[in-house]
Amino acid sequence: MFGVFYIRNIILKKYHPGFIICVSMIFAGALGNLIDSMFYGLIFEDSTRVAVAKIFPAKGYESFLHGRVVDMLYMPIIEDKTLPSWIPVWGGERFTFFSPIFNLADASISIGVIIILLFQKKFFHKKPNEEKHSTVDTNTPVNDTVQVL
Q1: Is 106 a catalytic residue?
Q2: Tell me: the pLDDT tens digits for 19-77?
């Protein structure tokens, strides 16, 4: 709930649109990860990379708040190849190029934070205030004989 109120507040205060979008991305990613961990273990069966999980089995694989994050894409470019033996340390081992799983929620959080850091001067630029003078111009003559009480 705090995130919704914060985003509403920065919209009402007319913050830079880029900052509002970045904060929204961070909030959406965090909320997505939270929802996944809360409910995925309850409403899906355990799955692997090969098999897709069935929704609403008789019993989920985990309890509330112990599910796995599921908003991921697995995009191997080269899969299950053997590295040449002449490569030091890893030679002869099997590998998959681009094997890490790409998590959409974490990417949204990361991109939001990185953009805020890169463009912080633009997002938080304060307009220079006009100088306000506290003196009043009068036509009263000023000399050493006039006393100020």
Answers
A1: yes
A2: 999 999 999 999 988 888 887 777 777 766 556 666 767 777 777 777 776 667 777 77
Query: H helices within 13-103, ranges in order?
Result: 17-43
Residue type, 1: M
Secondary structure class of 108 (helix, strand, coil): helix
Contact 109, 26 (CB under 8 A): yes
- DSSP per residue over 112-146, as a string? HHHHHHHTHHHHTPPPPPPP------------TT-
Which of the residues 80, 106, 137, 144 is marked catalytic?
A: 106
Rg over alpha carbons for the chain, rounded to the nearest Å, is: 30
Which residue among the candidates 71, 80, 137, 144 is catalytic per the annotation?
A: 71
Chain segment 98-126, per-residue pLDDT in tens? 766 778 888 999 999 999 999 999 998 77
Max CA separation in the chain (angstroms): 101
8 A C-beta contact, residue 44 and residue 53: yes
Helices (H) and strands (E) in the chain, counts: 4, 4
Q: Which amino acid is at 25?
A: M
User: Is the whole-model pTM more than 0.85?
Assistant: no
